[in-house]
């Protein structure tokens, strides 16, 4: 009997369309000879399974079941979460799946909730000795409790203003002048209730993926991210305005240090499945944490599939391993 896999995608953030592309990528990576695979889109209050004939079937939220093409009620054996943002990256969906006893592909509720909030993540990582940029947070409704000058005195210019919760593709601004600070904060608040203002770090941006199950542990080759844009924004990520060099042009010793740190963070947090950690390497080969991605992009050109190939692994076997060894 084939297992039924639901790839949960969509969400209600600006990254909805990216999530749908990741879902298509994941579906193409999975072993269709071994699994019956459905995408389930969560969007605008609707939970719908996308059937092979293009029709949609409403998901029963009591047990996550739905009717297939023949009208038979089926309940997935496993859920692969690829929502970038709420509710799949903040622990909410994980909590629901825990309640109904459904195994899933990502880390648990606490890890997802923590890593979804960049400011909370950075301060937690700092307490463990990981180097991060200085930052402060501003909550919606309290924007005027701190002046622009107080922010600049603390963080300096240039700086990054970004939504504290969610991805970095939308609502993020590299601020170079004082008069650009307040508009950047207002833009970020359109994406969420909290804003993080983060000090700029000059250096080489890299990213390193990792996945572990009961049977294996793999830290992938590192990718160097080179873009002529102000930062690794939406156009750089999804419209080709970037050079992605795997393996990164860094020393073997630095590569080993980054991979060891990635594996250590994975274990400290108690992650599961595939994660990707972004770093900036500053002068003196100092490794600075940027962001922990627990549901990284999975289109064919995304970092993780690139790194899996560079590691000499088969992405289909990686998917199977995550499903079978939860």
Characterization of the model:
The chain is α+β, with helices and mostly antiparallel strands and 326 residues long. It is 30% helix and 28% strand. The protein is built from ten helices and 18 strands. Strand 3 (46-50) and strand 4 (56-58) form a beta hairpin. The mean pLDDT is 93.
How would you concisely characterize the structure shown here?
By secondary structure, the chain is an alpha+beta fold.
Alpha carbon gyration radius: 20 Å
Cα end-to-end separation: 19 Å
Succession of helices and strands: EHEEEEEEHHHEEHEEHEEEEHEHEEHH
Helix content: 25-40%
Regions with pLDDT < 50 over 5+ consecutive residues?
none
Q: How much beta, percentage-wise?
A: 25-35%
- Overall residue-averaged pLDDT value: 93
Question: What does the main sheet amount to?
Answer: 7 strands, mixed
Dominant shape: globular
Number of strands: 18
Primary descriptors:
globular, 10 helices, 30% helix, 18 strands, single chain, alpha+beta, 326 residues, seven-stranded mixed β-sheet, 28% strand
Give the arrangement of secondary structure elements:
Elements (H helix, E strand, L loop, with lengths): L2 E8 L5 H14 L5 E9 L2 E5 L5 E3 L7 E2 L5 E2 L3 E4 L10 H8 L9 H8 L1 H10 L3 E2 L2 E5 L8 H8 L3 E5 L9 E3 L5 H9 L4 E6 L4 E9 L4 E3 L3 E4 L7 H5 L4 E3 L6 H18 L3 E10 L3 E8 L9 H8 L4 H10 L2
Parallel strand pairs: 1-2, 1-7, 8-18
Antiparallel strand pairs: 2-3, 3-4, 5-6, 9-12, 10-11, 10-12, 13-14, 13-15, 13-17, 15-16, 17-18
């Amino acid at each position: 009997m084939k297992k039924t896999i639901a790839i949960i995608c969509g969400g209600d953030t600006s990254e909805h369309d990216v999530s749908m592309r990741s879902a298509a990528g994941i579906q193409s990576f999975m072993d269709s000879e071994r699994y019956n695979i459905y995408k389930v889109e969560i969007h605008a209050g609707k939970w719908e399974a996308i059937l092979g004939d293009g029709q949609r079937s409403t998901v029963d939220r009591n047990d996550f079941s739905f009717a297939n093409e023949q009208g038979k009620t089926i309940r997935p054996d496993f859920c692969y979460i690829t929502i970038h943002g709420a509710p799949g990256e903040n622990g909410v969906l994980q909590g629901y799946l825990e309640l109904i006893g459904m195994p899933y592909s990502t880390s648990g509720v606490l890890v997802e909730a923590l890593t979804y909030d960049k400011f909370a993540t950075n301060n937690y990582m700092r307490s463990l000795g990981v180097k991060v940029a200085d930052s402060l947070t501003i909550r919606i409704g309290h924007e005027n409790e701190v002046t622009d000058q107080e922010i600049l005195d603390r963080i300096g210019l240039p700086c990054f203003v970004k939504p504290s919760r969610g991805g970095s593709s939308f609502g993020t601004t590299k601020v170079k002048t004082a008069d650009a600070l307040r508009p950047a904060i207002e833009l970020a608040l359109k994406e969420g209730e909290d804003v993080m203002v983060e000090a700029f770090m000059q250096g080489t941006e890299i990213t390193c993926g990792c996945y572990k199950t009961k049977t294996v542990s793999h830290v992938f080759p590192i990718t160097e991210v080179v873009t002529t844009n102000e930062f690794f924004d939406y156009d750089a990520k999804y419209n080709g305005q970037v050079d992605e060099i795997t393996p990164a042009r860094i020393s073997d010793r630095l590569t080993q240090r980054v991979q060891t740190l990635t594996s250590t963070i994975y274990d400290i947090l108690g992650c599961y499945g595939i994660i990707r950690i972004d770093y900036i390497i500053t002068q003196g080969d100092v490794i600075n944490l940027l962001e922990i991605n627990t549901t990284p992009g999975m289109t064919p050109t995304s970092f993780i599939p690139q790194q899996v190939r560079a590691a000499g692994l088969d992405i289909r076997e990686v998917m199977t391993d995550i499903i079978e060894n939860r």
